[in-house]
Amino acid sequence: MGVGIAVGLSGFAFGVTSAGAGLTLLQSCALSLLVFTGASQFALVGALAAGGNPLTAAAGAFFLGVRNTFYGLRLSQLLALPRYVRPFAAQWVIDETTAVALAQPTRRGVRIGFTVTGLTLYVLWNLTTLLGALGAEAIGDTDAWGLDAAGPACFLALLAPMLRTTRERAVAAIAVVLGLGFLPLLPAGVPVLIAALAAPAVLWFEGRRAGRGTAAESAGESSRGTTDRKGTDR
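Predicted structure:
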């Protein structure tokens, strides 16, 4: 509930930003109700506010939301929900619900964490979107409130304790470098997809290193075997 409340309040920032980008109250609320993935929503209205083409803005938001597909692959195994429930649960597959669910030790805990986080966040996000869009002029500059930082801050706080091994820390560090490095060069959403390449890159490097180690051990054993045979012959 703490995660849902903290991140849900940042819906104020989206409502204000969306209204400032020229979207109507109905359009702003529809985005939160139907899309419900904050990063993609901000990317869409941000591109529109900058004068971008609506199709390009939608494409950037779509690419940014692709990451939820990978979350869903993992959560489907952990939640093990009945088939008729999955389409509804898919609406709540986002950064925060995934992080909370993955932090739980049991399947029951995973289900409770996912459901409570998803419900709290969905209700608050949509409510604050409505209030933010209605009171855009009264709230003023959302940067001064820091509401747009609540979501990323909560997600990082959940993610940090999960980086226990050198491999996981390496993946996170490389992902940050790739994401930030390509951020000013590529359309919104694409740097996130490129950052996802950090995981297979680290695994490939470890595989190469393990392969070289195995080859070296094989060569050493072969050399020792040859020496032993020579000694026996003598």
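Summary: The chain has a mean pLDDT of 82.
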